[in-house]
Design brief:
Helices cover 21% and strands 25% of the residues. The chain is of the alpha+beta class and 353 residues long. Strands 1, 8, 9, 10, 11, 12, 13, 14 and 15 form a nine-stranded antiparallel β-sheet that branches. It has a two-stranded antiparallel sheet with strand order 2-3. Strand 13 and strand 14 form a beta hairpin. The chain starts with a strand and ends with a helix. This is Protein croquemort.
């Protein structure tokens, strides 16, 4: 059995917004800059004609205050209404080509308790090659992500089913949240409850911008190529200016943290790591941790965010931790013993001829 622990942190960059937690009848009410949709619209309009940008800027200047107060439940799961969403949905009903996936805004809207949100996977069973067991072949019935047609080949495991490892130097973990795979590198071993596994972690190459890892260049979408340390996932998030990184810009180019107060990258807290029992492929420890950042596009025709233009703003970071329980660790150790006995028997038979 696996023990799962989740942690979600709303970032508090002093430069732009803070979650000011107040206790009201036992409910957390965060005061939150309601600028996600405005940022998205500004980013989408960045290549439009000056007149369109002018109209867009005038529209925002007449909208309500961008600071709103919502419960954590609304902010994360239930969602709340927004004027921009209503306008976009109205345009869509009049056959204007605009992609509006939801009727409300929340970080994980419609995801809680959903069996279909992440899409359909097609993965290898290991019947033809045991060492391919659990490897994803298709996602949403395609072998390449629509978000990254040039470099989004579906590969790796979704993280909970692995084959025995053959001294792998790297592992790929496919994440539907970013519509592509994360590459982790071997980093020795780690022991949990007296069971030792191979450890794989994020490093500087995980979110490289192509400066060191040539294959990462294709993630620089359009005319934008950000400093190393973040991955442009805007095409995965309906055009929103979303960039994923490790929490607190851990291992990212120093230019990111220099513009935001309160960044304290820490390997012990912010490293993405996976520990797998090498002989069975059983995950012993998993700590999946990512941060979502929004890019404030700089444009002299759009004034609403001109004070923060050209800045990557941390919005939220989350960690999901999974560890085997003591009861399950005993079973893994028994498997270890059986494997040793099996190989000893094979060796004995071979030597006896």
């Amino acid at each position: 059995m696996l023990k799962v622990k989740k942690k979600i942190m709303i970032m508090m960059p002093v430069a732009l917004f803070a979650l000011i937690f107040g206790i009201t009848t036992g409910i957390l009410w965060p005061t939150f800059f309601n600028d996600i949709l405005q940022k998205t619209a500004a980013y989408l309009f960045r290549y439009y004609q000056p007149f369109i940008k002018f109209v867009f800027n005038q529209l925002f200047e007449k909208m309500e205050n961008i600071v709103v107060t919502k419960t954590v439940q609304q902010l994360l799961f239930d969602g709340f209404d927004d004027k921009l969403l209503k306008i976009a949905n109205a345009l869509k009903r009049h056959n204007v080509n605009v992609e509006v996936p939801f009727d409300k805004f929340a970080w994980f809207y419609q995801r809680n308790n959903s069996e279909t949100y992440d899409g359909i996977y097609n993965m290898n069973t290991g019947s033809s090659d045991f060492y391919d067991m659990g490897m994803v072949r298709e996602w949403k019935y395609k072998d390449t992500s629509d978000s990254y047609p040039n470099c989004g080949h579906i590969k790796g495991s979704i993280g909970d089913l692995w084959p025995p490892l053959k001294n792998n130097k790297t592992l790929s973990v496919f994440s539907p949240d970013i519509c592509t795979s994360l590459n982790l590198k071997a980093k020795g071993t780690s022991t949990w409850l007296d069971v030792t596994g191979s450890k794989y972690v994020s490093d500087e190459d995980t979110f490289d911008n192509g400066g060191k890892v040539d294959s990462m260049k294709c993630y620089c979408q359009g005319r934008d190529c950000q400093p190393s340390g973040t991955l442009n996932i805007s095409s995965c998030k309906f055009g929103a200016p979303a960039f994923v990184s490790l929490p607190h810009f851990y291992l990212a180019d120093k230019s990111y943290a220099e513009k935001i107060s309160g960044m304290n990258p820490d390997e012990d807290k912010h490293e993405f790591q996976l520990v797998i029992h090498p002989d069975t492929g059983i995950p012993l420890q998993v700590r999946g941790t990512l941060q979502i950042n929004f890019y404030l596009y700089s444009d002299d025709k759009i004034k609403i965010f001109d004070r923060f233009a050209g800045t990557f703003i941390p919005m939220i970071w989350f960690t999901q931790e999974v560890k085997i329980t003591p009861e399950f660790a005993k079973k893994v150790k028994l498997l270890d013993l059986l494997i040793i006995m099996f190989y000893s028997m094979i060796m004995y038979i071979f030597l006896r001829g």
